[in-house]
Amino acid sequence: MIKFLDLHHQYLSIKSDIDKAIQSTIEQSLYIGGTAVNDFEVAFAEYQQAEHCVGVANGTDALEIAIQALALPPGSEIIVPANSFIASSESVTRSGHRVVFADIDPVFFTLNLEDVSRRIGPNTSAIIAVHLYGHSCDMDRLRALATSKKLKLIEDCAQAHGAEFNGKRVGALGDIGTFSFYPGKNLGAYGDAGAIVTNNADLAQLCRMIANHGRIDKYNHIMEGRNSRLDGLQAAILGAKLKRLDHWIDQRNLIGRCYIEGLRDIDVIELPQISPRVRHAFHLFVIKTDKRDELKQFLAERGIETGIHYPIALPKLKAYDYLHQSEEPMLANRMDGRLLSLPIGEHLSVNEVETVIAAVRSFFEHIGSP
To answer: Residue 213 and residue 206: Cα distance in Å, rounded?
Structure first.
């Protein structure tokens, strides 16, 4: 079996450091707050080249807290890419705002700047830039557009830990950035966890207060907040993993290049493209093919796990029927039946990557070719 994701393999490769981090937290009984949380927030802010980091309970909370902290006009519109996980859009609605879906770029799958520009109206207050699959959005153009229209720019970096645009890490390139540390992420916890990064000290302090019942110390509640804290065990685990993140991303890029080189001559599939201004984090390696379902079954029969990210474009979900965007001729609405994610991660050996390439080639040579 060639696994799509192998967290046990990852654990075994760093077992001593993980066990030590967990044991230390238990011995100190620092389960909420404490040195592990503080140390990770400092380390992750430094890693992401941000001035501030606030640990929270999960990536969805991070988005909701960031939106609340920006104090956007009630009921205003926030533009979200049509191809993403629902957390990108549900955080908008749950924060009292209205989602407007914009199309994706045909080359990089990130926000289509021209479509974003067309959808900006008098009620638009913010744009959520999702660095999808680990490839950064064009942050120069997005920032220029947001600035010219007096909009806030939120970066959803749930799939982009360590990704870069023009040599700078994503997250602090807009007004505020959010991260998920869901176990399957490039930097994953052993449960739910998330973080917010920003270069704005006041914004960081407000996010910290919102996440901790609106208080600045134990019983001094300045406002009503919520309970969304990064716990000590997860922070300790993340701190141990963070030291290896760059190496893991390098391995993912190596695998990505192998796939691109090994599959580039197959005309009936579209491979990921990488902007020369971007360091791809390759959280996912997503190809497009009209034979998606047949290829997925073919690979499964040969012991190769794959994924689909995402099988239903957000505007087509029943949850968003009321927006009436499912029938719009967006690329995202047409492409969701063609996406297939191949295995990628530090758990894969060179031989396994070559086996995946050979299997994909075999499918198109003997089964999938027109």
So the answer is: 11
